[in-house]
Amino acid sequence: MKKRIVPIVLVGVLAGLAWMVWFRPVKTAEEDKKPEALVPVQVGKIIRTTLRSYVTAYGIVEPEPAAGARLAVGVPGVVAAVNCVEGQHVEKGAVLFELDGRAAEVAVQFAQKTVDRQRKLVLTEGTSQKLLQDAEQQLASAHAQQALLQVHAPFSGTITRVNTKAGEAADLTTVLAEMIDLDRLVVSLNVPSAETGMLKVSQPVEVSTGDSTNTISASLGFTSAQVDPKSGAGLARAPLPLNSGLRPGQFIRARIVIEERKDRLAAPLASVARDSSGATFIAMVEGEKAVLKPVKAGLRDGGWIEIEGDGIEADKPVVTEGAYGLIMTQQFATKIRVVGE
């Protein structure tokens, strides 16, 4: 029985092989060819623009060094009148504080009477010119002392703080009030020491606050050659334009333009990638394919980067999202499917 089964199995195997060789349908070359996969990518465009390099620094809004003042008396005394309040705008020369002037008034009146008497005596030759001159000097001195009893605004500005009240004593160290000129504000910046050497007066500055996307244009007005050993930062100042909307004490972020390159070709930052050897490429869209192009990358500005290379032109489409994957395949032409821009 077993001897019969073996030949039957052999015959069946041989018949199957014969069918596969002679009777199986033959596939065409088109059927054997596998469909080429389309790589999904997003694209952008090369542009021609102005690129800038920045130093970023942080600081606060302050009055200019000469645009802020702490007001004090010229002689000790008792404050008789306070003629200003916080937030008040005052003009240069306005009388802001007055000290008790009763004693000074008495001194002026006495000196004036002395001068009047000496002038009458001079007419009758009852005194000398020397005594008259002495009396007139005494009167001038009394008036000068009386003038010191008033504290005037040194410039036009805004009172930011009043520290005294009528009836309080004040000496030469007492700060009666503080005032600033809100039309003369600056941003005082702390710049890392490694970047202070890049700064120059008149460089453009873009100022912004943390709660706003708007920027205020200014120019660098001062840079210090000294570095604070505690913070490791140098000082720079940029005057703010009138009606900037900023107020003293505000914390700000500033970008100082240290280099500007006009009329340069730039590609989206995501479109430029490096291969394993460190060479820089972009994937330019040509028809249905992405063709790798070697480029030289330059200045980076936000989401753009300067590029140079053969065949690189403005308005040419390039792969952005997916560019790195194309470059790592080492294929210099790959079929793509654009899924977004």
Explain what the structure shows.
With 341 residues, the protein is α+β, with helices and mostly antiparallel strands. It has four domains: 39-51 and 262-340, conserved putative lor/sdh protein from methanococcus maripaludis s2 fold, CATH 2.40.420.20; 54-65 and 184-260, Elongation Factor Tu (Ef-tu), domain 3, CATH 2.40.30.170; 69-99 and 155-180, RNA polymerase II/Efflux pump adaptor protein, barrel-sandwich hybrid domain (OB fold (Dihydrolipoamide Acetyltransferase, E2P)); 101-148. Helices cover 21% and strands 42% of the residues. It has helices at residues 2-22, 29-32, 102-123, 129-147, 323-328; strands at residues 39-45, 47-63, 68-71, 77-82, 89-90, 95-99, 150-152, 157-162, 169-170, 177-180, 185-192, 204-209, 216-219, 222-228, 233-239, 251-268, 273-274, 280-286, 289-294, 296-301, 304-308, 317-319, 333-340. Strands 2, 11, 12, 13, 14, 15, 16, 20 and 21 form a nine-stranded antiparallel sheet that branches. A six-stranded mixed sheet has the order 17-18-19-23-1-22. Strand 12 (204-209) and strand 13 (216-219) form a beta hairpin. Helix 3 (102-123) runs antiparallel to helix 4. The mean pLDDT is 86.
